[in-house]
Write a structure and sequence with these properties.
- Strand 4, helix 2 and strand 5 form a beta-alpha-beta unit.
- By secondary structure, the chain is an alpha/beta fold.
- The protein has a domain of 196 residues: NAD(P)-binding Rossmann-like Domain (Rossmann fold), CATH 3.40.50.720.
- The protein starts with a strand and ends in an 18-residue tail after the last helix.
- It is built from 9 helices and 13 strands.
- The strands form 4 sheets. Strands 3-2-1-4-5-7-11 form a 7-stranded parallel sheet, with helices on both faces.
């Protein structure tokens, strides 16, 4: 089959390219880099796709940053929304059978909660979550018009080797002895292996629907930091009492208020590290989702 993967040279995209190519498919990548098969900046132009495509996996997007200016917010919109619109224009009349979009649990706008399902209201207020919601709507409407099966994946924290974002920061912090668990690190987070997302995509892209995909275990910060420190041959991560963390967070709040920039630690970040935020993937389990547990497959995500 002919498969087009946007963002195929990025962290998550590389897992999908490896998986689909390994199944004997003809994989084309689309992105801004010179090593993309179709070089195109979709936030600014419609890609020129010269051949028919069986399946499309849309991964390219902007994430892992907090907009500090109006221009930053507009960039989220240009990449995640305009980029999706331009991609779909380039895909018209290409014989597509199915399209998969990698969205995010950020669309729910939840700061805490347990076993959040796909039925929950989409209430994101941040630039990332809002643009993912809009991209989902655009893709869903387009697929109905084109009579194409569409699958939308909403993953939580994606785990894999050389992962960007919070996981990468956590690993670096542990390596340098700068990371602390707070209140024993008991707060839980849903996580999922990048490898599992790629492997399940071949089945899911023919089924369609919207799915949260997690490893079903919901590791705590303590459990994640423990396996990282052991793999890296570092001392066990120390614990910071909640009362001390609150004091440091207030200092961070003052810094943000005065300097108008994000502090390394604040009350907002403290809440993220001390409250549960987990999502249910029961809907996907019903159709064959069988993920590996992140904390017992460390070799798949730590170098």
């Amino acid at each position: 089959m002919k498969v087009l993967i946007t963002g195929g040279n990025g962290f998550l995209g590389s897992y999908f390219v490896k998986h689909w190519s390994g199944k004997g498919n003809d994989v084309l990548t689309l992105g801004r880099g010179d090593n993309s098969d179709i070089r195109c900046d979709i936030k600014a132009e419609v890609p020129k796709i010269e051949q028919d495509i069986d399946y499309v996996i849309h991964i390219a997007g902007k994430a892992h940053s907090v907009p500090k200016t109006k221009a930053d917010e507009e960039d989220f919109y240009n990449v995640n929304v305009n980029g999706t619109v331009n991609l779909l224009k380039g895909l018209e009349n290409k014989g597509i059978k199915g399209l998969m979009f990698i969205s995010s649990v950020a669309v729910y706008g939840a700061k805490d909660g347990s076993n959040i399902t796909e039925e929950n209201e989409l209430k994101a207020t941040d630039s990332y979550g809002k643009t993912k919601i809009e991209a989902e709507k655009i893709i869903t409407e387009w697929s109905l018009e084109q009579k194409i099966t569409v699958s939308i994946i909403r993953p939580p924290l994606i785990i894999g080797k050389n992962a960007p974002g919070n996981l990468g920061k956590m690993i670096t912090g542990i390596e340098k002895g700068r990371y602390f668990n707070i209140a024993d690190g008991n707060a839980k987070r849903s996580v999922v292996l990048a490898e599992d997302l790629a492997e399940f995509s071949t089945a899911l892209i023919t089924i369609g629907g919207v799915y949260n995909l997690t490893d079903g275990f919901d590791a705590s910060f303590h459990q994640l930091s423990d396996v990282i420190s052991k793999k890296k041959n570092k001392k066990r991560v120390k614990n910071m009492p909640l009362w001390l963390a609150k004091g440091i967070a207030k200092i961070g709040d003052s810094i943000e208020m005065i300097l108008k920039k994000e502090a390394p630690f604040s009350t907002k970040k403290l809440k993220q590290m001390t409250t549960d935020l987990t999502f249910s993937s029961d809907k996907a389990t019903a159709i064959g989702w069988r993920p590996k547990k992140v904390v017992t497959n460390v070799e798949l995500w730590i170098n």
